[in-house]
Amino acid sequence: MSTGGLITRATALLPGAETPPVTTPREPAREAAERELSKPIYHENDPSLINRALRAFFDWLDDAFGAASGAAPGGTVGLVVIVLLVVLAVAALWWRLGAPRRTALTTAALFDQGIRSAADHRAAADAHAAAGRWTEAVQERMRAVVRSLEERTLLDPRPGRTADEAAAEAAVSLPDHAADLRAAARAFDDVTYGGRPADATTYARLRTLDLTLDRTKPLLTGPTP
Description:
Structural class: mainly alpha
Strand content: under 5%
Shape: elongated
Order of helices and strands: HHHHHHHHHH
Number of helices: 10
């Protein structure tokens, strides 16, 4: 052994001597590092799955907004104007959805249960009104109006009749109340098919109409041309 070899071995045996570097192949070293980094202690402060998803979404939204603002006329200001116009258009369509929906669905029959008298419908309407259930109260009061007209033979009992049809037919013998009958039918359609909430004022109008028609003498000969 050369002198240099003896010196190197002797140095390694001395206390506090540095450990010669470890040479490990690349693949085992990578696997060892992955095993080490997979330990829970290294992931205690990692963001949750929801946080990561939200961060990814906002990053995507930021990129999309940046791309859109670059393509829109006027840059960011132009994009904001376009977005506002779209929001206003959607709001206008939403506001107008009630009327088309009501028109499309008013083919449903006015009476959805078995035959009941006008008095029965009035009692049900008053009970709903006392409990603050204005939608049901309006529906039952309109049914009371039509059933009362049928009981007085001002309308022929006909299954499947709609509120609009009943109002139009009743206006022939009650021409002075034609506008109120149309308004009552519209209120019934709005709360039943249009999804619009009823209130005490709407119910009071229908109740007044019901009581007024019950005391009104019909025009049996029909209106004069």
